[in-house]
């Protein structure tokens, strides 16, 4: 395997292969109730406590569309720069399984609610556009639990009927890293919109991964395999790597690739055949006669459009233009909505005379390190945006040095203390009175006359020694800039 | 009063309101007659004890402002009734007791009616003779060993035999109108979207409609007034202005234009049916209305279209009966084996046949040729009616191509059985209202019905036409009580 300019290729003898990947992402709609019933959707509830007669498919029960879920899907479509279809149709996808009470899943087949769109990925070597084929609404199934009893399977219908958005990408992805960036971007957009919480541990975001390989430069697609239901970015990357290499090996051996559905075994790190194309289900899709076609007006869509919050791409552009951040800094700050919110709150609290660079460095440096260490989300940060803004301002206006600030920050972690108070209580205020510092320096030069002479004779390295001594003498509180200035003058 | 069960709904309501009869009197009378009529096999589940308790309770504090004050009635066993077993005529739901009530029955109880029991029907409403019921065939009160029609055969038999003053059935391809015709009663299939489908065991969702069955047009209008409501729980329910059908009922149909579609003159139709139709045309004219020859050119495609659309929807609607959650479950080696045994043992032959047809026409490779084509033809059939209604206010046809046949006569010939629905099926495909009224007898003395088809939401108009014709026809059902020993 070689990576030239981040191009992901698989090498065998004289041949180079390119990997082609398309994703079908299943994102759970952030909604209090299900797609066609009023049951709750809370994660982790006792089994079968969030099940209505509709969800359990009792005789004569009928689905009624949840308008909120429709709005969420349209908002997501807008976030994906996609075409909103004013008329879409719910179809039945028929198959038998114990955790599918109706014997069919209500989904959208021919006429999805959202059509073609695109998302932009920020890759290390520049931007990459990934096409969206469609987004449609569908019901989730229940859960079969096979390991509670040796004889019986248990069924939990809490998830049955929960609204999912299936977001289908075009086969535009070319490497595991792009897949990672794509998933993160989708997640980011949906979290900005509040349409999916993107929580992969709870199964709110999972994907079927379509992988094929072809000789580098070839325009034809190879035969693809679909890896079902992968629920973490890491596993997606591992599965793609394994699957692409498996397919390349087959081609190198002169064998053909069978179009099939495969499963990723996370323990063995390999994909395994689940069913071949011949065994594929015939889902017998047809329009659900219990539901009329879903029609939305221009006003309905425009109302949603007008209330779309600023999305990551726009926010990034604004951060660069307005706050003069680098593209790299802006990308980091907008990638997660809570980070962006935190940053913007810090900016607001810093007031007029603010140091943007300093604020960014403190968030992406000290704060991220603490969060990482404590395994916290930024929304759970032990230091509020307001207090971080005060801290940055204290540095900016010379009240404390950057070094002292780190001490103050440590103290702030315990109960989100006001840095101003810490500085006052601990007497950490920076010594910025030139006369005091001058006296201090005079004493040091006097005590170290020989070194001062050596410095004047050209041993410039000794400057650092004097700075250190001055700092030490002031208990770290002296303004380093003033020390520098005065020292330079005195040692001339 | 020994003749209580002979009274029409309108008379019973009047007598209860005038306190000439109590709900208990009426309920007792119908229970007694039902007890004596077991041979008809009209009931699947009797709820007599509880009915009497409710009747007594009603009499203690009678609310006489209601539309159906203390009126006992049995309903087709396709309507889910809270705490009362609901089987859809199938073994697979033999032990199923709903914890909820269908909107249509809820509407009825809210107006003061009392449930007598659940009436026999073809399994999942699939049949035209009530012979596919797991609970056995139903006898037609007209004659021994005669089918009452289907699928609302138990309902038709119970009204005709005076086991219940009125009832509700469901009609997917003729299941109210055909048995009404076979038993000499009135049956209305309302416009699709008029009555909520919530809580009705589904057969073919785009065709199913509940409707009233009664001894006369006025009773039918009153019951339609009660059951037809807009229901947000059914996404196909339509919010339109509903008439007070019984109050607005009039026999003045002067100047109305009634279409006579030439395509309903089918090959091999008995002369008796043709004669009946001609008689009907004369009655129309006698009422001061005008008849106009019209064409509904795609009529001959209606039956094949229906037998693609209905089984397709049914194959999917019946997938939920899998032994996992409720109803009958057979023991199996594994999940698939359990499914196969449950569904093989739980469903009867006709239901299995339709599931197979439906699965086939939806299969990839066949979908376009069958299901999609059928949907296109369905549109053409609807267009036929739309065109016709530019010229006429309603359409008159026979209800069925023959009178009732003998039990067992057609059980081995499903196609000949399906042909029974030839005049009723186009109405369901087009989503229109249709009413069957008794209009005469054949040479054997068996009743024959005429069908009036209306514009969508124009129930009042066809009820009026039926009401006017009823007066002229002056039909008397020949019920001999042959089954009562």
Question: How would you characterize this protein structure?
Answer:
Chain A contains 15 helices and 17 strands. Chain A has helices at residues 67-79, 176-193, 233-252, 298-306, 312-323, 327-334, 337-350, 356-374, 385-396, 402-412, 419-426, 434-447, 449-456, 462-473, 480-490, and strands at residues 2-4, 7-12, 15-28, 87-88, 91-94, 104-107, 117-123, 126-139, 143-145, 154-156, 163-169, 205-215, 225-230, 260-265, 270-276, 286-287, 294-295. In chain A, the strands form four sheets. In chain A, strands 1, 2, 3, 7, 8, 11, 12, 13, 14 and 15 form a ten-stranded mixed beta sheet that branches. In chain A, α7 packs across α9 (385-396), α12 packs across α14 (462-473) and α12 (434-447) crosses α15 (480-490). Chain A is elongated. In chain B, α5 (153-160) runs parallel beside α6 and α9 packs across α11 (349-362). An eight-stranded mixed beta sheet of chain B has the order 4-6-5-10-11-9-7-8, sandwiched between helices. Chain B has a three-stranded mixed beta sheet with strand order 1-3-2. Chain B has 15 helices and eleven strands. The mean pLDDT of chain B is 97. Classes of the chains: A alpha+beta (492), B alpha/beta (485). Chains A and B meet through loops of A and α9 of B.
CATH topology of chain B, anyone? Amidase signature (AS) enzymes
What's the CATH first level of chain B?
A: Alpha Beta
Distance between the termini of chain B: 20 Å
β-strand number of chain B: 11
- How large is the count of helical segments of chain A? 15
Structural class of chain B: alpha/beta
C-alpha Rg of chain B (nearest Å): 21 Å
Beta-strand level of the residues of chain B, as a percent range? 5-15%
First-last Cα distance of chain A:
60 Å
Strand order of the largest sheet of chain B: 4-6-5-10-11-9-7-8
The total tally of domains of chain A equals 3
């Amino acid at each position: 395997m070689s990576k030239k300019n981040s191009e992901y290729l698989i090498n065998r003898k004289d041949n180079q292969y390119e990997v082609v990947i398309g994703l079908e992402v299943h994102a759970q709609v952030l909604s209090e109730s299900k797609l066609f019933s009023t049951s709750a959707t809370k994660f982790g509830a006792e089994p079968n406590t969030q099940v209505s007669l509709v969800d359990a498919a009792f005789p004569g029960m009928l689905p009624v569309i949840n308008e909120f879920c429709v709005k969420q899907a349209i908002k997501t479509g807008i976030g994906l720069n996609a075409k909103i279809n004013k008329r879409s149709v719910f179809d039945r996808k028929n198959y038998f399984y114990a955790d599918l009470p109706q014997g069919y899943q209500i989904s959208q087949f021919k006429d999805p609610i959202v059509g073609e769109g695109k998302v932009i990925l920020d890759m290390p070597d520049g931007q990459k556009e990934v096409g969206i084929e469609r987004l449609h609404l569908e019901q989730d199934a229940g859960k079969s639990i096979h390991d509670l009893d040796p004889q019986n399977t248990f069924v939990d219908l809490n998830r049955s009927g929960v609204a999912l958005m299936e977001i289908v990408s075009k086969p535009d992805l070319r490497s595991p890293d792009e897949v990672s960036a794509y998933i993160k971007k989708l997640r980011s957009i949906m979290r900005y919109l509040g349409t999916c919480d993107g929580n992969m541990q709870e199964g709110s975001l999972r994907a079927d991964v379509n992988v094929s390989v072809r000789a580098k430069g070839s325009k034809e697609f190879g035969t693809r395999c679909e890896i079902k239901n992968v629920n973490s970015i890491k596993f997606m990357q591992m599965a793609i790597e394994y699957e692409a290499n498996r397919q390349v090996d087959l081609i190198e051996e002169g064998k053909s690739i069978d179009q099939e559905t495969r499963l990723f075994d996370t323990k063995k790190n390999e994909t395994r055949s689940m069913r071949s194309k011949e065994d594929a289900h015939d889902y017998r899709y047809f329009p659900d006669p219990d539901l009329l076609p879903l029609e939305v007006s221009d006003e309905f869509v425009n109302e949603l459009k007008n209330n779309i919050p600023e999305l990551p791409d726009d926010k990034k552009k604004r951060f660069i233009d307005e706050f003069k951040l680098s593209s790299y800094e802006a990308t980091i700050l907008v990638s997660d909505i809570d980070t962006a919110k935190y940053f913007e709150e810090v900016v607001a609290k810093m007031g007029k005379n603010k140091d943007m660079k300093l604020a960014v460095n403190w968030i992406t440096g000290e704060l991220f390190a603490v969060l990482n260490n404590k395994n916290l989300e930024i929304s759970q940060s032990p230091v509020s945006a307001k207090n971080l803004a005060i801290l940055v301002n204290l540095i900016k206006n010379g009240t404390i040095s950057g070094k002292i600030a780190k001490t103050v920050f440590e103290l702030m972690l315990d109960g989100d203390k006001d840095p101003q108070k810490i500085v006052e209580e601990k007497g950490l205020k920076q010594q910025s009175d030139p006369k005091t510092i001058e006296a201090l320096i005079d004493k040091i030069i006097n005590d170290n006359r020989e070194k001062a002479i050596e410095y004047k004779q050209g041993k410039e390295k000794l400057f650092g020694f004097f700075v250190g001594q001055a700092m030490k003498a002031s208990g770290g509180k002296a303004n380093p800039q003033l020390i520098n200035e005065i020292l330079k003058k005195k040692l001339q | 009063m020994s003749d209580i069960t002979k009274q029409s709904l309108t008379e019973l309501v009047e007598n209860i309101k005038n306190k000439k009869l109590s709900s208990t009197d009426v309920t007792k009378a119908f229970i007694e007659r039902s007890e004596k009529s077991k041979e008809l096999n009209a009931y699947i589940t009797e709820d007599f004890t509880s009915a009497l308790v409710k009747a007594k309770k009603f009499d203690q504090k009678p609310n006489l402002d209601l539309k159906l004050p203390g009126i006992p009635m049995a309903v087709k066993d396709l309507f889910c009734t809270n705490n009362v077993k609901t089987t859809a005529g199938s073994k697979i739901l033999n032990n199923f007791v709903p914890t909820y009530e269908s909107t249509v029955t809820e509407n009825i109880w809210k107006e003061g009616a009392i449930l007598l029991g659940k009436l026999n029907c073809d399994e999942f409403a699939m049949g035209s003779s009530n012979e596919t019921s797991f609970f056995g065939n139903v006898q037609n009160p007209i004659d021994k060993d005669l089918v009452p029609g289907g699928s609302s055969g138990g309902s038709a038999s119970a009204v005709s035999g005076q086991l219940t003053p009125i009832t509700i059935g469901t009609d997917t391809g003729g299941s109210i109108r055909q048995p009404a015709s076979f038993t000499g009663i009135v049956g209305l299939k309302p416009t699709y979207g008029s009555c909520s489908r919530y809580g009705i065991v589904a057969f073919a969702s785009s065709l199913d409609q509940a409707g009233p069955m009664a001894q006369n047009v006025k009773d039918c209008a009153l019951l339609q007034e009660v059951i037809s409501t807009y229901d947000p729980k059914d996404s196909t329910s339509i919010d339109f202005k509903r008439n007070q059908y019984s109050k607005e009922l009039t026999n003045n149909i002067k100047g109305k234009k009634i279409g006579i579609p030439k395509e309903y003159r089918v090959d091999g139709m008995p002369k008796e049916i043709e004669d009946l139709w001609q008689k009907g045309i004369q009655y129309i004219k006698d009422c001061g209305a005008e008849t106009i020859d019209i064409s509904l050119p795609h009529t001959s495609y209606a039956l094949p279209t229906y037998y693609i659309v209905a089984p397709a929807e049914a194959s999917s609607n019946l997938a939920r009966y899998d032994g996992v959650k409720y109803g009958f479950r057979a023991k199996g080696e594994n999940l698939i084996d359990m499914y196969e045994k449950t569904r093989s043992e739980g469903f009867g032959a006709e239901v299995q046949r339709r599931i197979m047809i439906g699965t086939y026409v939806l299969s990839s490779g066949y979908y376009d040729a069958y299901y999609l084509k059928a949907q296109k033809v369905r549109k053409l059939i609807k267009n036929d009616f739309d065109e016709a209604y530019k010229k006429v206010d309603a359409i008159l046809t026979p209800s069925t191509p023959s009178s009732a046949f003998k039990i067992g006569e057609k059980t081995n010939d499903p196609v000949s059985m399906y042909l029974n629905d030839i005049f009723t099926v186009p109405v369901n495909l087009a989503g229109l209202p249709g009413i069957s009224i008794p209009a005469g007898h054949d040479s054997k003395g068996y009743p024959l019905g005429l069908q009036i088809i209306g514009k969508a939401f124009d129930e009042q108009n066809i009820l009026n036409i039926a009401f006017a014709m009823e007066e002229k026809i002056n039909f008397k059902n020949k019920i001999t009580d042959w089954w009562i020993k």
